[in-house]
Amino acid sequence: MPDEDIATDEAADSAPGFFARNRRSLLLGTALVAVIALATPLVMGRIMPSRPAQASAESAQIVEPEATAEEPEPAAEVSATQADTTTAEPDLASMRAAAQAQATADAETTPENDLMSNVRVIEQQPRLSAATVNSDALTAIPTVDPVTTAAVGPANNYAENTGSADLPPITAPASIEPAALRAAADAGDRFAQFEVGAILTEGTIVEQDFTQAAAWYERSAAQGFAPAQYRLGSLYEGGRGVDSDLDMARLWYQRAAEAGNRMSMHNLASLYAGGELEDQDFAAAAHWFEEAAGRGLTDSQFNLGMLYARGLGVEQDFEQSYIWFSLAARSGDKDAANSRDDVARSLDADAIQRLDDTIAAWAPVEIDIAANFAPIGTWDDEFDPGPAITNPDVVLRVQMLLGKLGYDVGAPDGISGPKTREAVAAFERATGMNESGAVNPRLLAVLGSQPV
């Protein structure tokens, strides 16, 4: 998880962000229905590292981004009348034309077989370094908008250590500092075990070692820590540090999803819908996309809108499709805005007005903070989270992120006032970290570990 500061646009170009950007596109290859000429990429985003480069020609092709890719500014909602029809990647106009040409040439193709195995990735290769928290290069706090996408759930037993799992003991590498972190991990502290695994995954403090990282994630995951279960599932899916095993990936995603981890919900749904398991199961995909979408995950909202538009795993329902595309568009997703406008053509004005009222009143279900965000430094009651950051741009983005998670920060203004400090302290408590109440490198690293 990176722990970085935003100083200038130039710094954003030169330093890596919280997420390593990898993108793959998935198309529904034919028109939606006779009344809607819609062919849109289904964002079956994996919140995971990309697949190994030696994948077969039939498998998803990974598009490696430029290292200097810049995170977009916070995006406002794209209205139905102002939707931008031009997108950078993927090129929807070309995709729609190609999809409709294919539909004309092959009218017998079924919706299930139209689904390609390519996916657009929600990138996640976070940094987590308790030893080197600093604020030198925060470049990619996720795109945010003022819309609350998740309410605060209880800080449940994820904030408690349940003891060692029944796995052979291993020893943390001596190169990982401080010694207190190694000692806590060796003694079975699941948060410290996760932290060691994340450091080994990142490979900036020590040599990158996915095999050792998987071993540490496994020990944390076996004790019920949902973020570790998600990480282990992503390693099994990508074949990093372990043999690629989609059944094992599904198992760990399932455990984490049932514990409330949004990214695992989304990835599990993607496995079911993408055809990479033995059979496609759109009903299961729709269930887990809806769970994640209801907790504010934009790509899940987009995918759910697509499933409702196509009637895959759910009864075809253009009104539900319109709602979910609209919610995704509200977070600045241009593909979702275009798809919403396509669906709107099959709805009358009264229905659109009614649905817009529903969307305006929509509220997310609670997100369990501790099941989604891994803490840093819980192995030391006096852990130093780093110096307070007062950069207004950084503080503003933190305020918007905390607001999306359901915390009351007042009006986001880039100033760390009493409400912001209390919101930060509440987030720290929910994750099990010692309280500072300040915007600092540790907070940035933890908040930046996943899309919000």
Automatic annotation (TrEMBL):
Region Disordered, residue ranges: 55-114
Keywords: Membrane, Transmembrane, Transmembrane helix
PROSITE patterns per record: TAT (PS51318)
Bias kind Low complexity: ranges: 97-110
SMART domains noted in UniProt: SEL1 (SM00671)
Annotated Peptidoglycan binding-like domain residues: 395-447
Sections of the chain in a coiled coil: none
TM helices/strands, residue ranges: 26-44
Bias-annotated ranges (Polar residues): 79-88
Lineage top rank: taxon: Bacteria
UniProt cross-references to InterPro entries, sorted A to Z: Peptidoglycan-bd-like (IPR002477), PGBD-like_sf (IPR036365), PGBDSf (IPR036366), Sel1-like (IPR006597), Sel1_AlgK (IPR050767), TAT_signal (IPR006311), TPR-like_helical_dom_sf (IPR011990)
Family annotation (PANTHER family): ERAD-ASSOCIATED E3 UBIQUITIN-PROTEIN LIGASE COMPONENT HRD3 (PTHR11102:SF160), SEL-1-LIKE PROTEIN (PTHR11102)
Name this polypeptide is given: Peptidoglycan binding domain-containing protein
Taxonomic source organism: Pelagibacterium halotolerans (strain DSM 22347 / JCM 15775 / CGMCC 1.7692 / B2)
